[in-house]
Amino acid sequence: MISIAGAGVAGLSCAAELCRRGVQVEVFDIGSGPQDNKSSWFAGGMLAPHCEGETAHGDVIALSQGAAAWWSQVTQVTQNGSLVVAPPRDRAELTQFAKRTTGHRLIDGEAIALLEPCFAGQFSRALFYESEAHLNPRQALFDLCAYVQSHGGRVHYNTAAPKRVDVDCRGYGDHLPDLRPVRGEMALIESSELNITRVVRLLHPRIPFYLVPRGHGVYMIGATMIESPSMRPISVRSLLDLLAGASVLHPSLGEATVIETGVGLRPAFSDNRPTVIQKDGCFHVNGLYRHGFLLAPALARLLADQFSPIFKQETGDENNRKFHPA
Amino acid sequence: MKLYDTDLTSRLLLGTAQYPSPSVLLDAIKASATQVITVSLRREMPQGSAGGFYRLLQEANCHILPNTAGCHSASEAITTAKMARDLFETDWIKLEVIGQSDMLAPDVFELVEAAKILAKDGFKVFPYTTDDLSVGERLLDAGCDVLMPWGAPIGSGQGLRNPDRLRAMRAHFPNTPLIVDAGIGRPSDAIQAMELGMDAVLLNTAVAKAGNPVEMARAMSMAVRAGRMGYLADPMERRDMAVPSTPVFGLAELS
């Protein structure tokens, strides 16, 4: 029986991958349910390795391969690609974004209108990342939990993990040296007027903004990145920025309803790359930063390789090993 | 170069925002050989204590110049400056009071007001200002020993939009350290600023948002040194007529 601390996206993904390989698992979480894992609960759920490649380390893009396929076994994944647009005066941002990412093609206003009719006449050019996808993180957490349980695993909410566990996935709650919190703020808005079916990113020199459809007229908008451990509710300034982004993306979103705001602390190492660290007999899966849902499948596979029959031999200090997933 | 009582050998000051990761930032700081890094305080402020990011910055072993980025009034800037003094244990403050949010232009009236109060309170004020001479005068009267005129709007990477005004500032304030703050996009912009006789250059986005921030940091460091050396070497004047550079005394006498 493998014990796992933390039932966020990292912990549950590790549990699911181990279950899939026939390993018995038990997950402990002090929260009362998925909604208490703030970083996962308030995530965007974009499976967008190419767009993230603009700033992310090459590792992140490499590790993202197969993420959408992995998630499809567990939860509903929407494979509609993603669209990147910029206001006319910020067209230089689009040029730079295109230069620094791959997997896209430039499309014109007509093609944009074919993909998303509500943007007809709104933008004259966009980058289309056809292979990208998105999921609903909240549904995914419930589905992961159900997947683990249906494979004989157990998930204990309202339960502190025992002092010694085999795997620690508690994010910023796992006090590893060099781990820092990056605060993220988001909002959910609801609009009955618009039907946007894929992730849309709005490039703006000051407020990078994205919108992820959640179905039934609900959209997640995000997200800030602030070097801070503060869990106070979203600031007026951040919310202003997000809502301004929404109304620039489409004027009708000015009439949308703000139904929820949220704050999470994303765990990140100083190079913003995810890592599996073996330390005193425990594997720490951490540093997923702003790529929790994108990277969890790869990290889960890497972790499961340590326990499943095809054990991967590593060299180095037995008690303190670091597996760089590249 | 002396900024207030501190002797510095590097004439490049580097901002710490917008890098792909803190480790890239630390590498860029090293590559730039800077001795002064600016830190934005306003939004990233944890309640009371310094977070992980601030601990990382201390590893850089540089003088920390906290800034009041995002403040729109003298009173906001003063509050932020006091928070910065407590958190970083420094009396240096880069004073930024924004008056107009589209161009992030300084509000020079609030700026002078805040500078007066902070200087009286013992702060060593580094004001982010325009290239206006009379504003510069007022800032010196307020107790500033350094002026930081803009080259172009913050984060725009447009280079020096008005080099003649900067040249005039140099002539008007011969003994005040002048640091071009904001607008630098490329190494050639930094060279131009230094050739005008500016004492130093402060930049952030040009490095942080480059495809390879560490290489750009190195390039900027070389540019600042090249520009300074060029200024000190007293460049030739421009002239309209071409002059052959071949030595005359080696030519054949044809008569």
TrEMBL record, chain A:
Keyword Nucleus: no
PANTHER family: GLYCINE OXIDASE, SARCOSINE DEHYDROGENASE-RELATED
Keyword Transmembrane helix: no
Origin superkingdom: Bacteria
Species for this entry: Pacificibacter maritimus
FAD dependent oxidoreductase domain span: 4-305
Any one Gene Ontology cellular component term annotated for this protein: cytoplasm
Gene3D superfamilies reported in the protein's UniProt record: D-Amino Acid Oxidase, subunit A, domain 2, FAD/NAD(P)-binding domain
InterPro entries referenced in this protein's UniProt entry, alphabetically: FAD-dep_OxRdtase, FAD/NAD-bd_sf
Annotated keywords: Oxidoreductase
MF terms (GO), sorted A to Z: oxidoreductase activity
Descriptive protein name: Glycine oxidase
TrEMBL record, chain B:
Annotated active site: K94
Pathway: Cofactor biosynthesis; thiamine diphosphate biosynthesis
MF annotations from Gene Ontology: thiazole synthase activity
Highest taxon listed in the record's lineage: Bacteria
Gene3D superfamilies: Aldolase class I
Listed InterPro entries: Aldolase_TIM, Thiazole_synthase_ThiG, ThiG
SUPFAM superfamilies: ThiG-like
Keywords: Cytoplasm, Schiff base, Thiamine biosynthesis, Transferase
Signal peptide: none
Function: Catalyzes the rearrangement of 1-deoxy-D-xylulose 5-phosphate (DXP) to produce the thiazole phosphate moiety of thiamine. Sulfur is provided by the thiocarboxylate moiety of the carrier protein ThiS. In vitro, sulfur can be provided by H(2)S.
PANTHER family: THIAZOLE SYNTHASE
Protein name: Thiazole synthase
Protein's organism: Pacificibacter maritimus
Gene: thiG
